[in-house]
Design goal:
The chain has 460 residues and is mostly helical. The protein has 4 domains: 224 residues, Lysozyme, CATH 1.10.530; 84 residues, no CATH class; 60 residues, Membrane-bound Lytic Murein Transglycosylase D, Chain A; 48 residues, Membrane-bound Lytic Murein Transglycosylase D, Chain A. The protein contains 21 helices and 9 strands. A 3-stranded antiparallel sheet has the order 6-5-7. A two-stranded antiparallel ribbon has the order 1-4. α5 crosses α11. The protein is elongated, with a radius of gyration of 26 Å.
Amino acid sequence: MVDSLEVFLKQWYYYTGRDTVCYLEDNDRHYFDTDLPDSVFKERVEKIATPINVVYNANVQKYIDKYVKRGHRLAPKLLGLSHQYFPMFEEKLDAYGIPLELKYLAVIESALNPKAKSPAGAVGLWQFMYKTGLNMGLEITSYIDERMDPEKSTDAACRYLKLLYTTYNDWTLALAAYNAGPGRINGAIKRSGKSTYWEIYPYLPEETRNYVPGFIAMMYMFEYHKLHNFKPEKIDFYEDVDTVMIKQQLHFAQLDSVLGIPVEETRELNPQYKLDIVPAVAQYYPLKMQRKYISKFMELEDSIYHFQDTVMFNKQKITQAIADSKYGVPSGQPSGTNATIYTVKSGDVLGSIAKRYGVTVANIKSWNGLYSDRLQIGQKLKIYTKGAPKTSSTSTTASSSSSTPQKLDPAYEYYTVQQGDTPAKIAAKYNGVSASDIISLNGVDPSKLRVGQKLKIRKK
């Protein structure tokens, strides 16, 4: 895990749809003070105040070189991400009475990416394997994986770490067991005849021999980052967030269509839902959203659950999604954009198509309900761009259907429905108008708006 941080960071930027997938150029960064003799690092490591037995040696220095001396790309991003998760980690760790410095364990495990997946099958901020996650009470099904739920996985990690400490009465051994499993640690203790991490070190797997030194080096980077002039990279988070309980099946695309909450936003706030579906059939499930949406969600809750539900919960398509992680319900067309249909040709990849149209890969995947990057020749992709639609031999502009002329009341101001419009998106164009106002004033079903339809907005 300690050597996979850059991979997990790139996974995080990709799944959230952030534009800064690539690291900033070195010359865009300020001066870092990292050219110091090893003796300075040794002195500082030995002064870290923690109940965990930290030591300095050549292997610890190897990871200090990686995270600090060569940390000009890694350190600012990890420091920036820590602002989102460390307050919650510290609260949980304190509640269980275990060292707050264990928060750094999640950094070396996942680079603070709640959807990080290792080649071995470990998942989430704390990189639980499937059986360990189940044993710690985390729900893992075709629809939900609580290893990716930041709060629940952190609580499970605290309980697991406390259990390991109770077994070994030594935090470095507990950390080693977290990485390798108690069986391997017990075997190393038996073969060596010793009882501390550094005594059994030669008998451990290579990854575990690197694990505790990597943890100590990461602790050093966070504890002393100011002395090296490392500053957190600015990363915008959704801060004013609350939780609602979902009482029926809900697809993220329903929130997009009715309330105007982008699918990518709901995914980022709720990474535990694997197929963009909250499977609230036999029980209620929590869902996080920005507080500004909650009152409208409560007001339109039933309408949201039933919005195109026969399409959203098509069993055949969901089964295929579970099989190949490809299917998803497309999100709606962003307001103020033009629609283009792009036909995939030989040699196309999502990255090149996104660059051509000035959008992100995450945009294209969301608009077309794609989970994987796999494309097929002849496949049609919806692309939404601002300004005049771009056309080529392999793309055609999506046409709008006309509606039957309707009698208009001159006492009202009207809006003409565009491709991809929802009541929420229309309401956002007018001050003092809500989605519920539009629905009630026109007596319409939000799922049956027609392009060209005239909607009453308010009295003139």
